[in-house]
Amino acid sequence: METIKITRESGIPLMGAIQFGIIDRGTNLLQIRATTICNLNCPFCSTDAGPNSKTHKTTYSVDIDYLIDWVKEVVKYKGGKNIEANLDSVGEPFVHKDFIELAKKVADIEGIYKISMQSNGTLVKKEQIDELDSIGIPIRINLSIHSTDKEEAKELAGNENYEITQIVELAKYINSKKNIELLLAPVWLPGLNDKGIGNIVELAKELKCLIGIQKYEIYKYSRKMKKAKNITFWKFYKKLEEWEKEHNTQLKLDPKIFKFEKMTRFPKTMDVNQKVYAEIKAPGWIKGQMIGVANQRCVTINKCNKPIGSTAKVKIVQNKNNIYLANQL
Ligand code: SF4
């Protein structure tokens, strides 16, 4: 799989694409995405990430200093205070070799009061947890863990080398740190890992850490597991209530944890239906797409046959949250 390095010199802006850079959804939470690469192949992955991906033939890795410059600009525009930096990814953030450096530099930006991040835990070293713990601002790690059963955990990671004991040990280590809050984040695949979820609930009770059970969702490009049922939200919350009674613990997360305040958005530069010329810069994330640049934003162009370095006339068809999708004209 080809990895596109995104540097200042590439001329690719860090806003406009969903898969890398910054996503500002108009609140005090900023999503910051440094890589799309993942080392696992979870068979239910909502982004179809990992080495066996059928949808993606391209991955992206962003230069950290370039990313930091963009974060500073966006934070300043949004008012320069009370911002949570969410270091997330459509893959595994810790794959990026400079991930800890990114966290440290983000923590130094004035106006960022907290960092949250997600990880599958497989590449995380204890020394890195020590470094994060001493970063100076509160951190929350959302750790993906879908079963405590050895074989089921391997199956759900899509990787024979996945060792759940290593992840549980890491969870305990993270949880022992003063400045890091641990949140176990299992995906419930109804009919498949019901027992595994029960065990993770017990683990969260033992560690006295947060747990946020996630609903299995099916999207156009996500990986689907035939064995897992696709249920309604009503049924999902009903099951959470059942588990709450069975395990005598709260499973519906306190909404305050994920409730963010509205905040000025970084400005959009193109309207829907607007026709612009985009300079073609890189292959897109999904087959048939290309990434173009217009008006200081990335634009993902569907069914684009133009070579890199050329210019394409495109019509913007989506611009929600400053993420641009266009059709070639
Ligand atoms: S760890 Fe996350 S991003 Fe990677 S394959 Fe699994 S679900 Fe997808």
Protein model, in words:
It is a single chain. The chain has 329 residues and is α/β, with parallel strands linked by helices. 24% of the residues lie in helices and 25% in strands. The protein has seven helices and 16 strands. The protein has a seven-stranded mixed sheet, covered by helices on one side. β6, α3 and β7 form a beta-alpha-beta unit. α1 packs parallel to α2. The two termini are 29 Å apart. The model has no long low-confidence stretch (mean pLDDT 96). The structure holds iron/sulfur cluster (SF4). Iron/sulfur cluster binds next to loops.
Layout of strands and helices, then pairs:
Layout: E1 2-6, E2 21-24, E3 29-33, E4 58-62, H1 64-77, E5 83-88, H2 99-107, E6 112-119, H3 126-133, E7 139-143, H4 150-157, H5 164-175, E8 180-184, E9 187-188, H6 194-207, E10 210-211, E11 214-215, H7 233-247, E12 275-283, E13 290-294, E14 297-302, E15 311-318, E16 325-328
Parallel strand pairs: 1-4, 3-5, 5-6, 6-7, 7-8, 8-10, 9-11, 14-16
Antiparallel strand pairs: 2-3, 12-13, 12-15, 13-14, 15-16
Helix pairs in contact: 1-2
The structure holds iron/sulfur cluster.
Residues 38, 40-42, 45, 47, 49-50, 91-92, 120, 144 line the site of iron/sulfur cluster.
